[in-house]
Design brief:
This protein has 162 residues and is mainly alpha-helical. It folds into two domains: 104 residues, Alpha Horseshoe (Leucine-rich Repeat Variant); 43 residues, no CATH class. It has ten helices and two strands; from the N terminus they run H-H-H-H-H-H-H-H-E-E-H-H.
Length: 162
């Protein structure tokens, strides 16, 4: 398939054709197909199994686009949750970022969910006494012994419901 054909499949919302393109030998075609499915959004629900498989593609752009598409599909992509959770630890930061974002889009935080104490500490919060506390205050008190890694911080932040 030629990359130019993806535009036609997208305009016709040909989910089956775009799913077929996810298995093309040309990684540019796979990238475009995943991107088109992302733009179609919830109507691309039938592509969830193939997008989930695309999270294992050798090309990180395909993996990131697949994660983004799963997020755009929303709650109908729940079967992809285990694979997306695994993808949050991808060696490519962009893939892990899109996988984390997709998890939020598929499974929004519960109402009134509170972020973890570490996330609250990083952003500071108003204590009962009205004073602002930060991660450094917690470290000085021994509550948090070391700052979380950037990846842990980013994932916790996105999943915390801020």
């Amino acid at each position: 398939m030629e990359p130019e054909q993806i535009a036609e499949l997208f305009q016709n919302k040909d989910i089956a054709g775009l799913v077929g393109a996810l298995n093309d030998d040309d990684n540019n075609v796979r990238r475009l197909a995943a991107g088109a499915l992302c733009r179609i959004g919830p109507e691309a629900e039938g592509a969830v199994p193939d997008l989930t498989a695309a999270l294992n593609d050798w090309d990180p752009v395909v993996r990131a686009a697949a994660a983004s598409a799963l997020g755009a599909i929303g709650p109908a992509a729940k079967p992809a949750l285990p694979a997306l959770t695994k993808a949050t630890m991808d060696t490519d930061f962009i893939v892990s970022m899109w996988a984390t974002s997709a998890l939020r889009d598929i499974r929004p935080p519960a109402a009134k969910a509170k972020p973890s104490p570490d996330v609250q500490a990083l952003f500071g919060y108003k204590s009962r006494g009205g004073t602002e506390k930060s991660i450094f205050d917690y470290m000085n008190q021994g509550v948090v012994t070391e700052p979380p890694s950037l990846r842990d911080f980013f994932i916790s932040y996105l999943l915390s419901g801020f």
